[in-house]
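WARN no homologs supplied; continuing
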Amino acid sequence: MSRGVNGIAYTDTFTLPSVIFGPFKVKNVDVAVPVAGEEADFGERYKIQHSRIRGVKVEGLAGYGVFKHFVVTLDYQSGKGHAELP
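OK structure emitted
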């Protein structure tokens, strides 16, 4: 079970041998996905009028398993981000 600020979702977890993130390859990434029949909202935010990422269709989420290897800078005003190796 995964909890967030907007609710609870039932998930399956597993480890991917590697994930490509831009020009980088990250190994042994833990992943959680909704169980069969559970709905996940990865792409609806592009429709919200006041969203900073309006016009950008989000088709998935990258979480701590990937970002823990990078220094991430987010510019909330412009809705852009940058990831760099430490």
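The helical segments are 64-67.
OK
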